[in-house]
Amino acid sequence: MEESKLKMLEKFVNERLPEQERDRVIMIVDKKPLTWKRVIEELKKGGDFAKKVEAEFEEMVK
After folding, report:
1. Is residue 37 a contact partner of residue 44, using CB atoms and an 8 Å limit?
2. Are 10 and 21 in contact (CB under 8 A)?
3. The whole model's pTM is what?
4. Less CB within 10 Å around the terminal CB: N or C of the chain?
5. What's the Cα-to-Cα distance from 55 to each of 19, 27, 40, rounded to whole Å?
6. Calpha distance 40→36 (Å, rounded)
7. What letter would DSSP give residue 18?
8. 5-44 tens-digit pLDDT
9. Which are the contacts of 47, defined by CB distance < 8 A and separation ≥ 6?
10. Longest dimension (CA), the chain
């Protein structure tokens, strides 16, 4: 994910979402439940799983 989009997403999650929403599961990728916080962590790591997470996230926000 582009660095600017990632920073915008991280800012949104940390500043706008209530704490309980940050820990809510928003998607499942490869049978792994992902919360908002976990999505950001995975996107920062990069790699194949991050690409799957990014694709699923992009599909969600269409």
Report:
1. no
2. no
3. 0.89
4. C
5. 25, 11, 13
6. 6
7. -
8. 999 999 999 999 999 999 999 999 999 999 999 999 999 9
9. none
10. 30
